[in-house]
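queue> holo job accepted (NAP)
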Amino acid sequence: MWLYLAALVGLYYLVRWQRERQVVSHLRDKYVFITGCDSGFGNLLARQLDMRGMRVLAACLTEKGAEQLRAQTSDRLETVTLDVTKTESISAAAQWVKEHVGDRGLWGLVNNAGIMPPITYCEWQKTEDCVNTLKVNLIGVIQVTLSMLPLVKRARGRIVNVSSILGRIACMSGIYCCSKYGVEAYSDSLRRELQHFGVKISIIEPGYFKTGMTDMNKTLEKMKQTWEEAPEHIKESYGQQFFDTFYHGIKQGLLGPCTNLNYVTDCMEHALTSVHPRTRYSAGWDAQFYFIPLSYLPTSLADYIVTRSLPKPAQVA
Ligand SMILES: NC(=O)c1ccc[n+]([C@@H]2O[C@H](COP(=O)([O-])OP(=O)(O)OC[C@H]3O[C@@H](n4cnc5c(N)ncnc54)[C@H](OP(=O)(O)O)[C@@H]3O)[C@@H](O)[C@H]2O)c1
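queue> job finished
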């Protein structure tokens, strides 16, 4: 009985592997537009696809980032500056992409740009940080997608949206999780609606990786500043001792991010080049072996696991 089961599981993975390794043809003629290419995953993906011979249209937030990327890549890669929170900037980038791709359309759109707000409890997160996070991580994804969609439909291409494993289970920085849950929901809706147009949507869910966004010193600095600027009633309610313990807990948790960004960019590349891309790619050991199983547990059990090591606020009954 167990042998048959093991053979069946083995067969399933063999068929899946065989199916997923089929690569789309004429990659060198295909255009891919990537947001947030100044650093991190976007930057590495742009270089990776350029090496593979694809036509990369890389959007950077700053001209400096664009210059640095151009210096590291072939003449085929082209850059544009794009702030995903600005409608005019998105419209200009869409026009620029349209002029480049012509009648072929856009094969791939990678919505990668994102920011991390200070890690805090929801109660002391500043409204402006919440709004900014949603603007970049969610509204930016939606606006860029809507601007590029006619071009992607023309190519019967791909949309690759970068969510996070925190888009599957909410812990740490509630507003960041909201933005990524939004990306998951939007991507699921798009996938179901666009199937008849031949457009495929993939979601990338990275675990914890070492990039500019996760720089430990910057993260801790932002966290401290948000606490210091919190209203007095919050400080009284939670207490300084609570914050100190929470801060040190986060500091410990931030040690040892995964440094191999290829785990993530290889998933993105697969989503863009495989004949049969996956709907979801969870990248990193922590994502696959901790967060995904955690997300399937009964809520009460997941709550216990997530909160068991958190300190107690000062003013609790
Ligand atoms: N690192 C992780 O552990 C992790 C885990 C899960 C998900 N993610 C997601 O992965 C994606 C890439 O992040 P990353 O880790 O590679 O961090 P990163 O190195 O900071 O990359 C984010 C990129 O987005 C750009 N950006 C920021 N605000 C923008 C805006 N308003 N318009 C356009 N571009 C903007 C940044 O430009 P500047 O560099 O000029 O600021 C940067 O190039 C994000 O969506 C993030 O949420 C990361």
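queue> The pocket of NAP is lined by residues 35-36, 38-42, 61-62, 65, 82-85, 112-115, 136, 162, 164, 206, 208-209, 211-214 (CB under 6 Å).
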